[in-house]
Design the sequence.
């Protein structure tokens, strides 16, 4: 009996990989084995990048809040602890947005915490 291979499935698999590698440079876009390796690595970077983005944004928000709070004579850690003591539950994203876009309301928030 002749050897049976599922050519339809394997071709579809290769086609899917090469379609995702479209736009890559050189052999990365049209040689299956190279495209597969590069694509796997790219998917790993994409997964890790989603986690790193969260860290980077949080640190950016902290820097912005710290800069705005120091103008009012406090440090970031003092400000956050006083917010928690007063029971004000605003996250760092909102606080940084207030500090950047609405400085007057942020100053009144800092004054209420002092």
Sequence:
């Amino acid at each position: 009996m002749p050897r049976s291979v599922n050519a339809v499935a394997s071709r579809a698999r290769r086609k899917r990989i090469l379609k995702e590698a479209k736009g890559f440079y050189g052999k990365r876009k049209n040689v299956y084995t190279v495209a597969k390796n590069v694509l796997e690595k790219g998917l790993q970077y994409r997964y890790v990048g989603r986690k790193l983005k969260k860290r980077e944004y949080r640190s950016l928000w902290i820097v912005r809040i710290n800069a705005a709070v120091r103008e009012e004579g406090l440090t970031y850690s003092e400000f956050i602890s006083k917010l928690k003591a007063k029971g004000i539950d605003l996250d760092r994203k909102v606080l940084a947005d207030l500090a950047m876009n609405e400085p007057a309301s942020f100053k009144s928030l800092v004054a209420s915490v002092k």
Notes: The domain at 8-113 is CATH 1.10.1900.20 (c-terminal domain of poly(a) binding protein). Residues 66 and 77 are 8 Å apart (CA to CA). The radius of gyration is 26 Å. The chain has one domain: 8-113.
